[in-house]
Amino acid sequence: MTMEDAYDSANVSSNDKETSLEKNFVNHAEIAWQEMRKNWVGDSSKRTSELPMEPVISFNATYEEMLLNNHTPFHKPIPLAEMVDFLVDYWHGDCLFD
């Protein structure tokens, strides 16, 4: 066996080891992250298609009514997207948002 043959066989076994490690690699951090994400957002396979909810915020609500009162004028929680839309519309109206 020549030195060249020995070098080639060493490279082959090294490549085989890398290939076997790649096949057996398990990303435990990703698995844990996916599980935490599923707990946070819920399992999408169990969701039913929901009809859009009626808005909680009245179309004629003012900023002062919404945010400057100490009491809660809403009969149920306001979805984040709805509140963001309300605030962006208000900020646009007062030229506070570009």
Automatic annotation (TrEMBL):
Residues 14-95 form the Gag1-like clamp domain. Residues 1-21 are annotated as: Disordered. Coiled coil: none annotated. It comes from the Eukaryota. This is Gag1-like clamp domain-containing protein. PANTHER family: DUF4050 DOMAIN-CONTAINING PROTEIN (PTHR33373:SF23), OS07G0479600 PROTEIN (PTHR33373). InterPro entries: Gag1-like_clamp (IPR025124). The lineage of its organism: Eukaryota, Viridiplantae, Streptophyta, Embryophyta, Tracheophyta.
